[in-house]
Every structure is written in C-alpha cells, then in structure tokens.
Amino acid sequence: MAQPLPAATANSLLTFETIGRVLTVGLNRPAKRNALNDGIILEIERCFAALPEDIGAVVIHGIGDHFSAGLDLSELTERDATAGLMHSRMWHRVFDTIQHARIPVVAALKGAVIGGGLELACAAHIRVAEPSAYYALPEGQRGIFVGGGGSVRLPRLVGVARMADMMLTGRVYTAAEGVVHGFSQYLTEEGGALAKAIELAERVAQNAPLTNFAVMQALPLIAEASPQTGLMLEALMASVAQSDQEAKTRIRAFLDRKTAKVQPS
C-alpha cells in the first residue's frame, strides 16, 4: 500500500497540492532556480511511489521564476567511472518512474528548462510552456554529458541533429520556438502554464484509466516497433481496451446521447 505523501514544510524540497483528482508537485529550490540535487531527485521518487489511489493525474512545476536550471553543479563530487555510472542510473530510475507512472504527468514550464531540468520535463507526457521558458543543454560547455535520460527521450521529441546542435554550440531555444519544434505541446500567456497544465490534467484524469495506460505505455512501444509488430500490438491493445467495463459504459452513454459529440474548440 502506498504511504501518505509527506507534509510540505518551509524546507521541503517538494510542495504538494491536491486539486480534485490532480496532484501538483512543486520543485521547491527557488533560490537555486530549482537546480536538481540527489535530495530532490529521491524525493520525486518517493512521491511517485506514494501516489494516492484517487489521484488521476500529476502536474510537475517549479516554485519561483524557473522550472529547473538542471543539475546542481555545486554538489558534483569527484567520482570514479563506476560511481558516475551508478549516479546516472539512479536518475534514470527516478525519471522512469515518471514516464511509466500509472497516471499521466503534465509539466508546467517557465524560465530555465535546462540540462537535467529539460530531461525531467521530457519524462512527462504533456508539456505546457509560458513565454518565459527557454531550453538549453550546456553540458558541452561544462565538459560533461547528459546523464538523466536526455539522449534517449529528447531526440524522440526534437530529433538527434537538433539536440546535437544544442550540446555542441550552446544554442538556446525560446518558448515560441519550443512549441514549434516539439519541446512542448502548448504555449500559454505569461504566468499561465501552471493553470493550463492543471486544466489539462483535470481533463486527462476523467479518461478511462486503461485508455490512459495504453496511450502512455503502449503507444511509444508501437511507434518504435516495426510496422507489422506495431499493428499487432495495436490490435491487442485495442481488444483489451474495448473489453474493459469502463469502455463499455462510456460507449453506451455515447450511443444513448448522454455525452457530447466532439466539436472544434
């Protein structure tokens, strides 16, 4: 059984707020532009291991003016290759818990979305940015390499060449450029990312849980499979989803004209 989420205090690395069936998780190191250290990474892992059963979606955001400026370089220590490998794998494990969470995760982005902060955002299923957001991978200029799964997740969003350019040249993308190139799916007015992310999370939380699971977990596998393997996986997932009682109830409600038809917004 999941343990209750810890109560947030003034010194908490994360803040929590429940809004209906949505849990907001705030990165709470504003004086450090929400730079990620091992403490906050492990708190994220504990949070996702203790998600209440009645929560249908999560919103991750940054307290203050920034989402996250990435790895807290002040906490880098001299590590041999083995220690460095295990440290990176710890970040992989935690960000995997976000990508493979039982419920969808929305990231609300503003200010710095840099390095490890961008890697964290990439682990979410939906990303919402406001105009202050900017994206960068300064690892090339720091003499290091991404270690939080960015080389796997980000190219799937923006392409290998774009990521390589960012790391080699230090190129920075604005929020407006980001929504065009795939860093985010939504761009809001200034100060609007969190509210929009919560709105989307509330909408997502109303979906059938099995459909959400299929979209989050099966769709990426289908997209990366060979065409014939993908089609078989799709058929299997479709058959499982439509046999679920929740699907039958929702389809009957639609046929009985108890739910609205899709209309342009």
Q: How are the SSEs placed, and which strands pair?
A:
Layout: E1 14-19, E2 22-27, H1 38-49, E3 57-62, H2 81-99, E4 105-109, E5 112-114, H3 116-123, E6 126-129, E7 134-136, H4 139-142, H5 150-158, H6 160-169, E8 173-174, H7 175-181, E9 186-187, H8 193-205, H9 209-224, H10 227-243, H11 245-255
Description of the molecule:
The protein is an alpha/beta fold. The protein has 2 domains: 192 residues, Alpha-Beta Complex (2-enoyl-CoA Hydratase, Chain A, domain 1); 47 residues, Orthogonal Bundle (Lyase 2-enoyl-coa Hydratase, Chain  A, domain 2). Helices cover 48% and strands 14% of the residues. The protein contains 11 helices and 9 strands. The protein has a 6-stranded mixed sheet with strand order 1-2-3-4-6-9, sandwiched between helices. A 3-stranded mixed sheet has the order 5-7-8. α1 links the parallel β2 and β3. α1 runs parallel beside α2 and α5 packs across α6. The longest helix has 19 residues. It is globular. The N and C termini lie far apart (40 Å). The model has no long low-confidence stretch (mean pLDDT 91).
